[in-house]
């Protein structure tokens, strides 16, 4: 069954309709998101399977690898279907030790946009997210200079839409004073719900909220509670965690990553998993 036939549906950002269950391409690179994958053919197969399942929303970044993930996307999917939308992010780089230092000067951001265009073989990027904070936590401060640099590239026609990653509500408001923001990509899941208010705010404004790490940061006790619900529903913990996110708010879009076609199919199936009220209440209690 194709994803568009499942419960996930679509969400419109700007002039683009994205499937609410997308695919996060980070795991296509090697261990630690560094270097090539052990099996490049398998990585290509996962991307093609995502398209076969009806996914039209691929999330990537040219610093994955670096460059590796975008090269694989191009190999697997170019020429791209008209309905396929690739979302990328800028604002970081990889160092020789596999670290993720910031790369957020206007010149660095412009270079990264052009790297994405070249390696994906695109003339225009559908959505570019400015990564602001650290790996999982926002960092306070003005983002005006950085967002203005991307807004200029949007005005030049190299970017259709702009988004933000790992930001605060204040940074979202600052960015909106410069150019429209169509999505926010922050860490959020059942256990890590610091952004509950931001989910609600973006929903009110028609902005997509794209959580990453759907199973990150769980304590053993929380994991046991999730496992218990999953066992009762005859589903995997990941499927339940993803279903909870889909039911949390209609503006939430998912980008779970995997290097396995089997796991990809399980993730897509989460869109059809209807959590009954008692299960929903148990899962809500995990993050309270």
Please explain how this structure is put together:
The protein has 288 residues and is of the alpha/beta class. The chain has one domain: NADP-dependent oxidoreductase domain (TIM Barrel). Helix content is 39%, strand content 13%. It has ten helices and nine strands. The chain has a seven-stranded parallel sheet, covered by helices on one side. It is globular. The two termini are 35 Å apart. The N terminus is likely disordered.
Give me the secondary-structure topology.
Blueprint (H helix, E strand, L loop, with lengths): L9 E4 L2 E4 L3 E2 L15 H13 L4 E3 L8 H10 L7 E6 L15 H15 L4 E7 L12 H12 L3 E7 L3 H8 L6 E3 L10 H10 L2 E2 L10 H13 L4 H12 L12 H9 L7 H10 L2
Helix pairs in contact: 1-2, 3-4, 7-8, 7-10
Summarize the structure.
The protein has 288 residues and is of the alpha/beta class. 39% of the residues lie in helices and 13% in strands. Helix 1 (40-52) packs across helix 2 and helix 7 (220-232) packs antiparallel against helix 10.
Give the total of domains. Answer: 1
Q: Percent of residues in helical segments?
A: 25-40%
Mean pLDDT: 94
Q: Please report the distance between the alpha carbons of the first and last residues.
A: 35 Å
Extract low-pLDDT stretches: 1-7
- Which strand order does the major sheet show? 3-4-5-6-7-8-9
The number of strands is: 9
* Category by helix and strand content: alpha/beta
Q: What would you give as the CATH superfamily?
A: NADP-dependent oxidoreductase domain
N-to-C SSE string, H for helix and E for strand? EEEHEHEHEHEHEHEHHHH
Percentage of residues in strands: 5-15%
Continuous helix count: 10
Question: Major beta sheet, specifics?
Answer: 7 strands, parallel
CATH topology: TIM Barrel
The CATH architecture term is Alpha-Beta Barrel
Assign an overall shape: globular
**Radius of gyration, whole Å:** 18 Å
Instruction: Please identify the top-level CATH class.
Output: Alpha Beta
């Amino acid at each position: 069954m194709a994803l568009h036939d499942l419960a996930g549906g679509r969400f419109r950002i700007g002039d683009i309709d994205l499937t609410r269950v997308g695919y996060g391409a980070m795991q296509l690179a090697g261990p630690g998101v560094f270097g090539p994958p052990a099996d490049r053919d398998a990585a290509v197969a996962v991307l093609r399977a995502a398209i076969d399942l009806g996914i039209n929303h691929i999330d990537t970044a040219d610093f994955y690898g670096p460059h590796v993930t975008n090269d694989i996307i191009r190999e697997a999917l170019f020429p791209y279907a008209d309905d396929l939308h690739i979302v990328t992010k800028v604002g970081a780089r990889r160092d020789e030790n596999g670290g993720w230092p910031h790369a957020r000067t206007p010149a660095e951001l412009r270079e990264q946009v052009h790297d994405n265009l070249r390696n994906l073989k695109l003339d225009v990027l559908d959505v570019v997210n400015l990564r602001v904070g650290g790996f999982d936590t926002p960092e306070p401060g003005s983002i005006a200079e950085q967002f203005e640099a991307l807004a200029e590239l949007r005005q030049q026609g190299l970017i259709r839409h702009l988004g933000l990653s790992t930001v605060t509500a204040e940074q979202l408001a600052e960015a909106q004073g410069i150019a429209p923001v169509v999505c926010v990509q922050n860490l959020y899941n059942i256990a890590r719900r610091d952004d509950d208010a931001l989910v609600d705010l973006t929903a009110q404004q028609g902005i997509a909220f794209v959580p990453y790490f759907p199973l990150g940061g769980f304590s053993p006790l929380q994991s046991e509670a999730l496992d218990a619900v999953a066992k009762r529903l005859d589903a995997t913990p990941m499927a339940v965690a993803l279903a909870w996110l889909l039911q949390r708010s209609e503006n939430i879009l998912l980008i779970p990553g995997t290097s396995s076609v089997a796991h990809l199919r399980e993730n897509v199936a989460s869109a059809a998993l209807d959590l009954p009220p008692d299960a929903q209440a148990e899962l809500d209690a995990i993050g309270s």
